[in-house]
Amino acid sequence: MPDPYDNLHEFAARNDLEFNEPALLRMALTHRSYLNEHTDLDWEDNERLEFLGDAVLDFLLAEHLFLSFPNAPEGELTALRAALVCRDTLARLARNLAIGPALLMGHGEVETGGRERPATLCATFEALVGALYLDQGLSAVSAWVLPMMDGELTGARAEVIDKDPKSRLQELAQGRLGITPRYRTVKALGPDHAKTFTVEVTIGETVYGHGEGPNKQIAAQRAALDALEHSADWPRPAIED
Hints:
The chain has twelve helices and three strands; from the N terminus they run H-H-H-H-H-H-H-H-H-H-H-E-E-E-H. With 241 residues, the chain is mainly alpha-helical. The chain has a three-stranded antiparallel sheet. Helix 9 packs antiparallel against helix 10 (138-162). The protein is elongated, with a radius of gyration of 22 Å. 33% of the residues are buried.
């Protein structure tokens, strides 16, 4: 019986990947549906590698952004990292690598468009990162991933900088906590023609930031910026189903 995995070597060579342990590459490109249809095979699907790769990407990009933008506030760095590791970005990189055609995937999954499904492509990219990390360590992942990410960074940074703090906070809060921020005016001092408003922003039951301004809109933007600048210290409140 011909080896159905010969094309993995071609995929690796085309994408500047070289594995000391080819079984890790095979696992990274194995969708669980393939093993469901081939129960005699004795290796894992890529879901555990996806978990590892997600963590490696988070750390690698946090370090890269920290060193690349020494004057950027924490909120901007967090938003940039979120833009680079989001599903759409990773799926786009996966398409550029032609991951979809290389996937070992069950026939039913293929017939329903699995090779082009963004969530699957994103997960497989993360699995490849996890496999490369196990095979050769962080330096190899960095050499392979960062040139691709630098190609995405210009657009991501322009998008982050162009967004107002409220929009950035909403994306971060929904992504990290699954909750939409709420704004409340807590104080209005001074005469009608020169009032100063104080607004607080809450996510769930927690107050995350305060801001003052000559109107409620500006105060709310400053409250959002305050929350973004301290987002590293955010607690992780339990979220009800």
